[in-house]
Automatic annotation (TrEMBL):
Any coiled-coil regions, as ranges: none
InterPro entries in the record: MFS_dom (IPR020846), MFS_sugar_transport-like (IPR005828), MFS_Sugar_Transporters (IPR050360), MFS_trans_sf (IPR036259), Sugar/inositol_transpt (IPR003663), Sugar_transporter_CS (IPR005829)
Membrane topology: Multi-pass membrane protein
Keyword Disulfide bond: no
One GO MF term attached to the UniProt entry: carbohydrate:proton symporter activity
Major facilitator superfamily (MFS) profile domain residues: 11-449
Entry keyword annotation includes Metal-binding: no
Reaction equation(s) it catalyzes: myo-inositol(out) + H(+)(out) = myo-inositol(in) + H(+)(in)
Transmembrane segments: 7-24, 44-67, 79-96, 102-126, 138-161, 173-192, 254-277, 289-312, 319-342, 362-384, 405-421, 427-445
Alphabetical list of Pfam families matching this protein: Sugar_tr
Protein name as catalogued: General substrate transporter
Length: 483
């Protein structure tokens, strides 16, 4: 018989296939656009057009993520994820069969609509089905499968680049479509979120779901009582986007939006989308070598996500965000300094002189990816979701995800031009953003480790002075315990 905890992890694995689909696209789209077979059939893309093509998925994802709050509240978290998966399936099928560049752009926009819808709801769903003691680990499954998808996307694109003809660049899209079909077919069998059911007054159904997802019936009744009590304290009217920014909730709402924006402004997708360009500038002299170096960054991304996945509920939220931010900033500041001293431009191309600086930059890029993967990649989405009250969670997380996609869109759109315009500028910009975020977390972020979603609501109802005192105590305890 499958235990309740095992059942939760199996559900998390399947719903997080939405993340694997995103990772497959992230890992493969850069190598695809650098393939000679792609240029031969679609045409050569300038830096500006390349940025538009890569980034357009983020624009449509940002728009659909804003609507995801309505859909997740109206249809349920389950069907919010499912409808997104169906749209992703349609978009990837069109991408795999497209004959012209305009069709590819349209297909990518369609895929983005589905990705924005499904990914925005997955973290909400996983947080709401999980008990407090494993909530971080369960919700982190999404990021784990994103990293699996990124690594897989790199190496599928590398392997398919050896195929002659158009099938070389179509193969990654075919894989994405196949994965989307598996994802959609399984979502129909996933349970509803018990908190959504209680919001809709379907108490008996919520009890039945919790009985399958909790170890004992006593825990089920206690949790039902806690959720109902929390919802009764909140307004019985339907949640609105305006309410998210009312005085009672504005602090946590702005904190969530800020963290989700900062996650992309640190430059992670500049590395993941344009890794072949970064490694070519750092000294790799062939596309094949740059592809392999990009694949190594995908493997590092995956490997360093695993310890964060396992220990997120032990580490808490503050330590990975503050420590990770400092580490991320250090790596990029060091790269920027190396380019400022040893870099330059010739014939419109950025170069880096000397084998020592070149290898140092490559190693620092890998260290940046490792630092991000074991800290911000896992913790930010969880924290931004769990600090929002149940009644407002879907719409607040939709706004958070909107800010994430829009910043990501801006970074993806401008990075190719920025990388060619300034050898060191991008790295100093991203590093400064990461350092500022770490400082904000140090002063304004209370710890939520091990607390139920309803207890977290109480934490944010405390006065700022009490919260600040609690943060100081938790920081002291972390130092004493050796964290």
């Amino acid at each position: 018989m499958v235990s309740a905890t095992t059942r939760i992890y199996l559900i998390a694995l399947h719903t997080s296939l939405a993340g694997m689909l995103w990772g497959l696209d992230t890992g493969s789209i850069g190598p695809i656009t650098q393939m000679e077979q792609f240029s031969g059939s679609i045409g050569h893309l300038s830096s500006g057009v390349l940025g538009i093509y890569v980034a357009c998925i983020l624009l449509s994802a940002s728009l659909s993520s804003l609507c995801s709050g309505y859909i997740a509240d109206l249809l349920s978290r389950k069907y919010g994820i499912l409808t997104g998966g169906i749209i992703v399936l349609l978009g990837t099928i069109i991408s795999a069969s497209a004959k012209t560049f305009p069709v590819l752009v349209c297909a990518r926009l369609i895929t983005g609509i589905g990705q924005g819808q499904s990914i925005s709801v997955v973290t909400i769903y996983l947080c709401e089905i999980s008990p407090g003691e494993i909530r971080g680990t369960v919700a982190a499954v999404l990021q784990l499968l994103i990293t699996v998808g990124i690594a897989l996307g790199y190496f599928v694109a590398y392997a398919s680049s050896r195929i002659g003809g158009e099938l070389a660049w179509r193969t990654p899209f075919i894989l994405e479509a196949s994965m989307a079909a598996v994802f959609v077919s399984g979502m129909a069998f996933m349970p509803y979120s018990p908190r959504w059911l209680i919001q809709r007054g379907r108490i008996d159904e919520a009890r039945a779901v919790l009985q399958k997802l909790r170890a004992s019936s006593e825990l089920v009744e206690d949790e039902l009582h806690l959720i109902k009590g929390s919802l009764e304290e909140q307004s019985q009217e339907d949640a609105s986007y305006r309410e998210i920014f009312q005085k009672r909730y504005i602090r946590r709402s702005f904190l969530g939006v800020f963290l989700m924006s900062s996650q992309m402004l640190c430059g992670i997708d500049a590395v993941l989308y344009y890794a072949p360009i970064l490694f070519t500038q750092a000294g790799f002299t062939s596309n094949r070598a740059a592809f392999l170096a990009s694949g190594v960054s995908g493997i590092i991304n995956l490997i360093f996500t695993i310890p964060a996945q396992l220990w997120v509920d032990k580490w808490g939220r503050r330590f990975p965000l503050i420590g990770g931010g400092v580490s991320i900033a250090t790596c990029f500041m060091a790269i920027g300094t190396l380019y400022a001293i040893y870099g330059g431009k010739a014939d419109g191309q950025v170069y880096l002189s000397g084998r020592g600086p070149q290898w140092a930059v490559i190693i620092l890029i890998y260290m940046f990816v490792a630092s991000f993967s074991c800290s911000w990649a896992v913790v930010i989405k969880i924290y931004a979701c769990e600090i929002i009250p149940t009644r407002l969670r879907a719409k607040a997380c939709a706004v958070q995800q909107l800010s994430n996609w829009l910043v990501n869109f801006t970074v993806a759109l401008t990075t190719p031009l920025f990388l060619r315009a300034s050898p060191s500028g991008p790295y100093f910009l991203f590093g400064s953003a990461a350092l500022f975020t770490a400082a904000v977390c140090h002063f304004l972020m209370p710890e939520t480790k091990g607390k139920t979603l309803e207890e977290i609501e109480d934490l944010f109802e405390m006065t700022p002075q009490v919260v600040g005192h609690s943060v100081s105590i938790m920081s002291h305890d972390m130092i004493v315990s050796g964290l």
